[in-house]
Write a structure and sequence with these properties.
- The chain has about 300 residues and is α/β, with parallel strands linked by helices.
- The protein folds into 3 domains: about 80 residues, Winged helix-like DNA-binding domain superfamily/Winged helix DNA-binding domain (Arc Repressor Mutant, subunit A); about 100 residues, 3-Layer(aba) Sandwich (D-Maltodextrin-Binding Protein, domain 2); about 100 residues, 3-Layer(aba) Sandwich (D-Maltodextrin-Binding Protein, domain 2), CATH 3.40.190.
- The protein is built from 11 helices and 12 strands.
- The strands form 4 sheets. Strands 4-3-5-12-6 form a 5-stranded mixed sheet. Strands 10-7-11 form a 3-stranded antiparallel sheet. The chain has a two-stranded antiparallel sheet with strand order 1-2.
- The radius of gyration is 24 Å and the shape is elongated.
- The termini are far apart.
Length: about 300
Amino acid sequence: MASTDLNLVRTFVAVYDSGSVTAAADILGITQPTVTHSLNRLRRTMNDELFLRAPGGVAPTMAARRAYPNFVEALNRIDAAFRLSAPFVPDAEPATFRIALSDAGEVSTLPHLAHALRRSGAHLSLEVLPLDIDQVEDQLIRGEIDAFISSAVYTSRNVQREVMFTERYVVVLAENHPRIGAEISAAALDGERHIAVRGVTGHSSPFDRQQARKVRLDAVVPRFTALPYLLADSDAVAIVPLFIAESFAASHPLRWVDSPWPMEEVEVALYARQPHSRSPSQQWLFDVATDTLQSAYPATDGAE
């Protein structure tokens, strides 16, 4: 392999990651015959078919599965060396970063990211796309987005998941709620009128618990952002992640108390292409977003 063209290795990894010769050509910006030619050269070198036809594309052979981790590690090391020699310089290079976020991400993480970019350089901008969990992998591979943030656990060999913070669920309510003080019991929460959020990927636990406990639902909405306007002049309550509750309380006449219902904490993670597939600017964004969000949301305990 010492004499093998590095581009053959990149082609192999692109085909392995995408499961398609056509998709690999799009990722690499080359023609499909060029990908096929490169694979044929690598097949002769490794004396193996490497990829076999499969429904929707190609599937790796056992030899390809054994080679993949070594090839990825080698590319990561080489690309890291190039990034060190030619790093992204935010105050000298204009760039627009595209990030997919849910409405929860827009409320909580987006202000921190936007502030971090403003501090880093005058030529940086941020474009936010709506998070479609069924499309994000293809969007990453095609370069339509640079990263996305979600509490949904998304697993793919093409995507790196880095947990930004872990958060618990709390009860958010009007600042002058007539019955709830600094805390509430499970029985009392069962008896309150609720606003439920259903359909937010990664946040199904509150709605499932409200259903299981047969609480009275005044309304069911598809996004968190509707809650402040429904709760501010009401005696209803909602169950939301703490970082959402804090954001709402900072800008609306709302407050929060700890939830007495047992619910698992939620992990909010940053997702991006694997290191070997990132440009220097994408690696810079990944590092900045990780540092910013992990610092902005340290472990918390106790109620407001």
